[in-house]
Amino acid sequence: MLTTLRQIVEKISGEKDLSKALQLVAAKTREALGVDCCSVYVADYIRGRNRLVATDGLNHESAGHVTLKFGEGLVGLVGKKKCILNLANAQEHPNFKYIPEIGEDEFKSFLGVPIIHNDRSLGVLIIQQKESREFNEVEESFLVFLADHLSSILYAAEQKVESEENAEPIKCSFGSGGIAIARGWVWQPHMNLEQVLLKKNNDRETQVELFHQALFQLQLDIDSLTLKMSSNLKNGELTNVFDSYQDIIENSDFSQKVDSKIYDEGWSASSAVKIIAEQMIKDLNTQNKSDAAADIIDLARRLLSRLAHSYLEEFAFSEPVILLAEEITASLIAELPRERVAGIISLKGNATSLAAILARNLNIPTLMGVDLAIDKLDRHLFILDGNRQELFIDPPVGVITEYRGNILRDEENTRLFIAEQNDPAVTQDGVKVNVELNAGLNFDKDSESVLSMIDGVGLYRTEVEFMMHNTFPTELEECVHYEEFLKNFSSTRVRMRTMDVGGDKPLPYMPLDEANPFLGWRGIRISLDKPDLLKTQFRAMLKANRKYENLEIMLPMISSLEEVLQSRKILDEAYKEICEEYSAKIAYPKLGAMIEVPATMFLLEDLAEHLDFFSIGSNDLTQYTLAVDRSNSMVAKLYDCFNPAMVRILWRLYRICVQELECPLAMCGEMAGDPLGAIMLISMGYRELSMNYTEIARIKYVLRRVDTRELAEIFKRAIKLSTTTDIRQMYVDYLKEKGLAEILNIK
Ligand code: PEP
Ligand code: MG
């Protein structure tokens, strides 16, 4: 056996091509041990997955493609625990994961050995057999020896490959355009001890202050948890569960020890908490006090999470950073200092998530739906290309230089767009398109300059104000807020949408626990179930509009005529009350509905009788038509408004609303701010597009260079096509023909 092993090692050492070497390992091991299958998985730390790279016995084609998340399947277990797993019946193990395409159905026994270098798992070496049996010691030793040899080969390859591989970008989903080159900073609201990377911080005073603030906040949390528990429990017995926590905070020397780690040794607050907590846990475990150790673990976790919220500590960088998080929320973006955020990477969500919309408003290059193991990426260098939806991690110098050039080119293009931003959006053949503003999100532009760019405010998202409060705002608070906006935009009409929370826009003070939030209690449904809330909102809007008379009201998520009639009734009541309160006849605003739910398509005639206008919310309409969750990155590639079903729906909406019912129809979904989406709408006949501030100049630049007659011809052909790709291509080709594709970064 030893001779065979030596021969295998010699052979693989002589092989320059890593994948060939690993394939050789698989084939030779299978042959030497007379087993039915041998495979090698290699850890990919950037993506957080083990990848099947070589196999002799499994489906060959799956090598290179099949991956398992770290910790997933038997492979994940071996890699994570760094232990040998020898099973006579693998499929009965709770961690077994069935992967149809690799063809391991007939294999019963499994032996997995980790490939470890410097205590880091680099992969897993596996043998499998059809017969159900435990593998013997000789077989185990054989694999352990080979795995040991493989570890140095894989480590050397990792070092070499890293620099070459990093020149290849990772494909992501769109969030917001623009390019950022900066170091990453991982935001983890729920931190574990293992996730804290030890860091020194010389600003010792601040670190101690942050630690004590976090401790104080934690005490408040514990008080409120204790209160909550005592009100939930019938007998008071269990209310002292947090006493041990208080004890640690008040009576142990935990806090002093953390202080001295910061003061004497210069550790950051989080690092000091980690070091001390780990010491205490170790001591308690050796004394067999596992309950007390568990208390320290939980307490430390809560403290670390609190500290992670202390943006001050982490954002005290001299350079802006790229923020990485599992899920970026709109409120997180709103809270962060804009000048410190160069870009955003969110593992969850897609272009129509509120966070992405907000990022576009703030002009922050953003990528959503990124498949990465972010906890390994703190402080790595990133190139985030929001235009091409690509991400580079620790790229080579050549790529950085190229991208610095791209940033300059982007800035030049932006200057071209801005130069014409105040000119009307009149097409080459003289057709005027109304370009309007989607507002309501944090937005620090002065209204005078914005007004000169737009033909109206097509969507004002009132829910953002609700989301920023800790409780429902009062009528007065709402009124002050709306009045300020109506005043700032008094020379144009403003379409305010009633509160549209629910779905991906939860209110912190109204938690909803729903299996399907997007199909649940959201938009007008909440407002009509809480009519006082809706009445208050109408009253605030009407009062705010008294002086300016530029308000129009829009209802979100309408799916029936009853909803419109009930809303109208509440609006009438609010109107009557305000007229009486002011003893004056005030302006009665136009009332319209968003078309977001496919059902409205078949109710247009009925609805139009009671409404003054429609506005399409393509973000939701696409989601509901295609049954694709707009914030689920797993299905992001299916979410496409060029899907023929969507194109036909948009065409039907235009024909019925505009041509038959002569009812004004606008588009205020994200589609309007996308150059391809915008020209597709124009090609059908749409003339009212509402979009985020950052998209206005670019869309106007495009509209001023296209011809509606040519586009109408394109549409005649596009409407007959049956695939998303073909339809999109027609419009891509048109932009190319017009010489616009390059400046818009469209390939
Ligand atoms: C839409 O659904 O297209 C829309 C504009 O509304 P929101 O994105 O706020 O849900
Ligand atoms: Mg919507």
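The two ends are 57 Å apart (CA to CA).
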